[in-house]
Amino acid sequence: MAVNPPALRMPARSWPAVAAVAVTVLLWGSSFVVIRAAGTDLSPGPMALLRMAVATAVLAPVALRAGVLRRVPRGRLLGLVLGYGVLWFAGYQLALNAAEQYIDAGTAALFVNVAPLLIALGAGVLLHEGLPRRLLVGGAVGLVGVTVMALGVSGAGLTGPGAAGGVVLALLAAVLYATSVLLQKVILRDLDGLTATWLGFVVGTVVLLPFAPALTDQLRTAAVPAVLGVVYLGVFSTALAFTTWAYALARIPAGRLGMVAYLVTVVSVVLSWLLLGEVPSATTTAGGVIALAGVALTRRRPARERVRVGGQRDGAAPLRAAP
């Protein structure tokens, strides 16, 4: 009986998940810049409500056509969906928006992206994905990279009034982000990505409704570019990006996928430079290279973990389609 030779690359069917990750990273990286720019006209709560209302409305036709209402979960799974919706699509949005009232976009992205290490540790311990050495080493290298980037971020950064509060809010956003990803990973074992994402949007929008009167008032005076920026956040950085994220998360272990979020920081700093004029220093650039190296380490597999027979990998974290 013939034995297939070892496969030294990912299966062909994994490329859609990789493409989904790339789209998510680009759109999430841009969101830090847009939030910072729109924050001069819209306060954190109204901005979060407008973003989530737009995302919910944009994804609604697709979700309803796909029969999401027939798949609304019950019991424990419904509780997880409610918790994930509150934490990510209300709590995280509020914390991040508020943080960027005090610290610049690049700095906010740097602090929020402490989350990948939290996700890796939580996935390893709570979701039993394991803690491979390459994941821990790559995560540590990535954290060093974003720390070096933080040292080189130009602009107001951590020197403006209220900066300490901004840092605390950004770190709170990181904790909410990591917790939400772990909850979502559990949810996606029993619920498809579209249903989980859209129901989360609905929950977040409902929780944010108390900000509706303030949003109405602020829309009367807000500049058109600021409003369009938040619409962009709703359509692209939320409706599209969270859908591609859910698709990838259903197919890639949470610990490994979380590390890719370091790339969001790199994208954010680059876009801050191009769009907001925050020129990255040599230190920031060096930190970005280190962060990228950390992500590369988490993706690298030792030879003993590659496919040996018939395309089946050893190890606990294969890239494969969800059952």
Q: Indicate the overall shape.
A: globular
Q: Return the structural class.
A: mainly alpha
Q: Encode the helix/strand succession as letters.
A: HHHHHHHHHHHHH
Main sheet characteristics: none
Uncertain regions spanning at least 5 consecutive residues: 1-12, 305-323
Mean pLDDT: 79
Report the span from N to C terminus.
29 Å
Count of extended strands: 0
Into which percent range does the helicity of residues fall?
55-70%
Q: Measured on Cα atoms, how large is the radius of gyration? A: 20 Å
- Note the total helix count: 13
Measured by DSSP, the beta-strand proportion falls in: under 5%
List the topology elements:
Blueprint: H1 15-38, H2 44-65, H3 75-99, H4 105-112, H5 115-125, H6 133-152, H7 163-187, H8 193-208, H9 212-221, H10 224-249, H11 254-259, H12 262-276, H13 282-299
Helix pairs in contact: 1-4, 1-10, 1-12, 2-3, 2-8, 2-9, 2-10, 3-7, 3-8, 4-6, 4-7, 4-12, 5-7, 6-13, 8-10, 12-13
Describe the protein's architecture and organization.
With 323 residues, this protein is an all-alpha fold. It is 70% helix and 0% strand. It has 13 helices and no strands. The longest helix is centred in the last third of the chain and has 26 residues, at 224-249. The model is unreliable at 1-12 and 305-323 (pLDDT under 50).
